[in-house]
Design a protein that fits this description.
Blueprint: E1 2-3, H1 7-16, E2 27-29, E3 35-37, E4 46-48, E5 54-55, E6 64-66, E7 71-72, E8 75-76, H2 89-103, E9 111-114, H3 119-126, E10 132-136, H4 141-153, E11 157-161, H5 164-178, H6 183-201, E12 206-208, H7 213-217, H8 221-225, H9 235-243, H10 246-259, E13 263-265, H11 271-278, H12 293-299, H13 305-308, H14 315-318, H15 321-331, H16 341-350
Helix pairs in contact: 2-11, 2-12, 5-6, 5-10, 5-16, 6-10, 15-16
Length: 351
């Protein structure tokens, strides 16, 4: 069984070595018994450490190991392409915009959109006839940004105002679903789970997300500075290092959304978008004054300029969920002077 693609497409990709064969990734088990996972790890799959068992969720296995991206069986079949860079920024912007347009031509039946008000989720929402959902604590940056962006786009917004009760209830669910209890992963997973949960309650079974844009298009400070956090000495090289982190991140995100009963849809991780992003270089990706430069220019064809240019906080901070998990941990006796106190708190909830 394969998630994300047909076995025939995967077979053709293996034979050709084409790492971007079309679609939004795949993972699973082929009829010949080989596990497979696309080059960006856009879908997770797991195997038993000491047996032939496999599953799409680590919770279904006794001793699960994440199957590596780019592999078919024991062999690495696909690696990230390194196409020639665009020469002109105008051409790059046009190609990215065209890829975005194509990626958003998806069936929106049963679909909801995780909407934070930033450029990534706004571009996703722009072409989809689907309700928009945002989650955050009262007074959070994400609630305010989502309201402003939804208003600018003339769209209705469904707001989920988070409470401590929501956090205490949801933390064990996402920690078990993802197999991760550390503060960072739980803080990122919780907003996705809570949005997906509400969308499912409202009758939707798929959740469109803006994942991938920051990694593909130069959305991180470390790619601009090429500092100690990356080995590369160029913006393009640093961006490729960040892209290599996607399999681990997407595993968490997909499992969190599925834990709520929804299936994630990530248009910005479409192969056509990935191919266009890999052709960007230097200031087309990011400069000291502007991250995701070409992506933002392309986004102006989809959303109002004020949204395309808006900077946004990471979801765990913009929603205030990370802050409130920390607060709950300290109330439960896990003080900041303790080693990794939030993780200890999460583990206590699992007990």
């Amino acid at each position: 069984m394969i998630h994300g693609a047909s076995p025939a497409l995967v077979d053709r990709a293996i034979e050709s070595g084409d790492s971007l064969p079309g679609g939004r990734g795949f993972a699973g088990r082929l009829p010949d018994g080989r596990s497979v996972r696309d080059v960006l790890g856009r879908y997770p799959v797991f195997t038993e450490r000491s047996s032939a068992g496999w599953a799409f969720s680590p919770a279904e296995l006794e001793d699960p190991v994440s199957f590596p991206a780019g592999h078919a069986g024991d062999e690495r079949v696909w690696t990230l392409p390194d196409p020639p860079a665009f020469v002109a920024e105008d051409e790059a912007t046009e190609r990215v915009a065209s890829a975005l347009e194509a990626s958003l031509g998806i069936d929106d039946d049963g679909l909801a959109v995780a909407f934070s008000g930033g450029v990534d989720s706004a571009v996703v929402a722009s072409r989809l006839d689907a309700p928009l959902y945002v989650v955050g604590f009262e007074g959070s940056h994400d609630l305010e940004a989502a309201r402003e962006s939804a208003s600018a786009m003339g769209r209705e917004l469904r707001t989920i105002e988070c409470t401590h009760t929501d956090i205490e209830r949801a933390v064990p669910i996402v920690a078990r679903a993802t197999g991760r209890a550390n503060a960072m992963d739980v803080g990122i997973a919780l907003p996705l789970f809570l949005v997906a949960e509400r969308a499912v309650e409202d009758g939707h079974d798929r959740l469109a997300v803006g994942q991938g844009a920051d990694e593909l298009f130069g959305g991180y400070e470390k790619v601009i500075r090429a500092d100690h956090r990356v080995e590369a000495d160029s913006v393009r090289g640093a961006t490729r290092e960040v892209i290599a982190s996607l399999p681990e991140q997407l595993e968490r995100d997909v499992l969190s959304i599925r834990a709520a009963g929804a299936e994630p849809v990530a248009p910005l991780l479409d192969d056509r978008v990935v191919d266009a992003a890999l052709r960007l270089d230097g200031p087309m990706l990011a400069t000291e004054g502007e991250r995701k430069r070409v992506f933002r220019r392309a986004a102006r064809g989809f959303v109002p300029a004020e949204i395309a240019d808006r900077e946004k906080k990471a979801v765990q901070y913009g929603s205030l969920i990370a802050r409130e998990i920390d607060r709950l941990a300290r109330r439960a006796g896990y003080k900041r002077r303790m080693d990794d106190h939030v993780t200890q708190y999460v583990e206590s909830l699992l007990e």
